[in-house]
Amino acid sequence: MVIEVAGVRAPSGRAAEAALEVCAEYADPALYHHSLRSYFFGAAWAQDRGLDFDRELVFVSAMLHDLALTAPFDSHTLPFEDAGGHLARVFAAGLGWPVERRDRAGELIVLHMRDDVDPERDPESRLLQVGTSADVSGTGLDAFEPAFAEALVTAYPRLGFAASFVRLFRDQAGRKPRCAAAELVAEDWAERTLANPLEGLAAGTSAGE
C-alpha cells in the first residue's frame, strides 16, 4: 500500500493496510475520508517542522480514532474517544503489537479530544490533534499551504463531512452530557466546523477565500 498526497506519504505494511480496510468497512465515506485527511494534515505538519514521528502509529490511530462514533462500536456510557482507545488496543493486539504499543495507539485516540500535547514530549499525540482539529473545525489551518489543503480535499473529498460530523457530536452530547464532545457542542464548535474553509474547497473556492 502506497498513498501519497503532495509529497506526504502514508506508511505501508500490514498494520496500515489492516487499519485502512477496517476504517473503510465501518465508517461511511465522509468519515473514512476525514480519517485519511487527519493523518495527512498531521504528517504534513510534522514534515514542515522536521519532527521525527512514528508514521505507522499515527496512521493506524488516525484510521481508528472515530470508529466509536459508528453504530457497531458506539458506547452508551463511555465518551467516544475512550471507547475508540479500547477498540485500538483490541485491533493492535490482533496485529501482535506489544502491550506498550497497544497502549500508545489507545492513548493517541483518547488524547486527540484533550488539551494540546507538547510535540516535544509526545509528537504522535500532537499530530493526531493537529490533523483532526484542522480537518474538523479549521483550527490551525493557516499553518498549511493552501495548495496542500486543496490537493488533500481533491484526493479525499469532504462529501458533506461537516454537517454529518456535527450531527454525530450532537448525538454524543445528548446521550453523554459530561463528555468532551458535549463541551464542544455547548460552545461555538458546531458553527466553526460548518464554517471550516475546507468545506468551501468542496464547492470549488480557494482555501484562502
From TrEMBL:
Q: SUPFAM superfamilies per the record?
A: HD-domain/PDEase-like (SSF109604)
Checking InterPro entries in the record gives: HD/PDEase_dom, HD_domain
Every copy of the HD/PDEase domain together lies at 27-103
Where does the source fall among the domains of life?
A: Bacteria
Q: Which PANTHER family match?
A: CYANAMIDE HYDRATASE DDI2-RELATED (PTHR35569:SF1)
Q: What is this protein called?
A: HD/PDEase domain-containing protein
Which species is the source of this protein? Answer: Streptomyces pseudovenezuelae
What does the organism's lineage look like at the top? Bacteria, Bacillati, Actinomycetota, Actinomycetes, Kitasatosporales
